[in-house]
What we know:
The chain has 244 residues and is mainly alpha-helical. Helices cover 50% and strands 10% of the residues. The chain has three domains: 17-64, Putative Large Serine Recombinase, Chain B, Domain 2 (Hect, E3 ligase catalytic domain fold, Alpha-Beta Complex), CATH 3.90.1750.20; 68-140, no CATH class; 144-242.
Amino acid sequence: MEQFADFPRRKKDGITFEAVNRLLTQQLYAGIVEVARWGVSPREGKHEPLVSKETWAKIQERLNAKQAVAPVRKDASEDFPLRGFVACACCEQPMSAAWAKGRNKRYAYYSCFTKGCPERRKSIAKDKLEQRFDTLIKSLRPSRSLFDMSRAIWRDLWEARGMKVEQRTKSIAGDLKKIGKQIDLFLDRIVNTDSPTVISAYEARIRDLEHERLLLSEKSRKKHEPQTSFEGSFRTAMNFLANP
Ligand SMILES: [Zn+2]
């Protein structure tokens, strides 16, 4: 936003976090009007929303979410990448790590510090533990055939989903045709009747059908193309699985 000269800013030193927060929490953008000081409770506005209510709600949820639940310490340093990720074999609590001073140099080690654990304070040298972790990760690499098979299964599912969407689009087109025919039918009947009561009943029916037709044609205009290709969607996941 700072690159756009037109973007309104209060300070000369750029866009503040508060400004970004205001943007992300402004419910007017989702089409909702609310003015508490005038007693106007939240309601549907008459203007065109910039984002859907679904999107807006998702943003609020994410903004209000508590911090990520990863067992990472704030001071997690480069020294001990596995701290908090490796569990004690005895009590299954996350292990911690520290530097210890020896006579001549410092030693890096992981250890369980859980109170009451029989293995508490038994240390494992950093290098030893990290090497074993390395070996474990390598053993997780799937075989070529397993990898190819899961890829084939995902592709099948991807194509099946595509077929379903196609079928639904076709069935909407069929429904639209049917409604068109029904409307024509009622119009014919109106022409052939003299009773005002019957005519207005037919007219009401036509109005309903027209509503239905509007809804369906909005649905049929919606794009059902996948947003990315199969390759684009799965490349990262497959690369990761191939070599965790
Ligand atoms: Zn333990």
